[in-house]
Amino acid sequence: MNIKHVFFDLDHTLWDFEKNSELAFQKVFLANNISVELPAFLKVYKPLNKKYWKLYREEKVTKEALRYGRLKNTFDAINYTVSDDLINLIAIEYIATLADFNHLFDGTFELLDYLKDKYKLHIITNGFEEIQRKKMINSKIHHYFDNIITSDSVGVKKPNPKVFNFALEVSKAKKEQSIMIGDSLEADILGALDVGLDAIHCNFEESKKETSKIKTVFSLLEIKQYL
């Protein structure tokens, strides 16, 4: 492999989204006197959030519809009455609060320290522009990366080829010398492979099975075997 550029996804790959999200909801619900059992809320919210993010990637819902809809649908499903004004407030406060919590997956710093002198490192994320950089700065990984490409800055989301081509152009990288590392088979891995980048799938969910013919790791430090 003649790899010179390594592109990472952020959420669910380096930054432990589920753990940080749970802590953010805990803080926001307490501040707004939302008296729901958090585990029961999250059990419903997590699959709804994934559904809305898929719709968002496919340009079928707006950012605002995602933020409101995933909360509204969850509260409705658990029969907890919340006004639209409060849902919108929670949506705003949740996004603002996410970066207050900075749990990373085990091995993040060790891996980035291992890679930083060997490759140019970059981020490609579908996350919101206003929060992704803050997450990286607060979790002390911002300085490892030469470029941070967000879907907001491109105008489309992974797996749209425009995102990967834009990232290659900004990073002055050739696709045959680049590799994408991420958790989403659809957005990160197949999206990258479709435009000619190599890819490594971070399969951190035990419920998922290994996909044949795709480089797969089950922990971050396993990436060292490929790079």
TrEMBL record:
Signal peptide residue numbers: none
Annotated organism of origin: Polaribacter pectinis
Pfam families registered for this protein in UniProt: Hydrolase (PF00702)
UniProt-recorded Gene Ontology molecular function terms: 5'-nucleotidase activity
Coiled-coil residue windows: none
Protein name: Noncanonical pyrimidine nucleotidase, YjjG family
SUPFAM superfamilies from the UniProt entry: HAD-like (SSF56784)
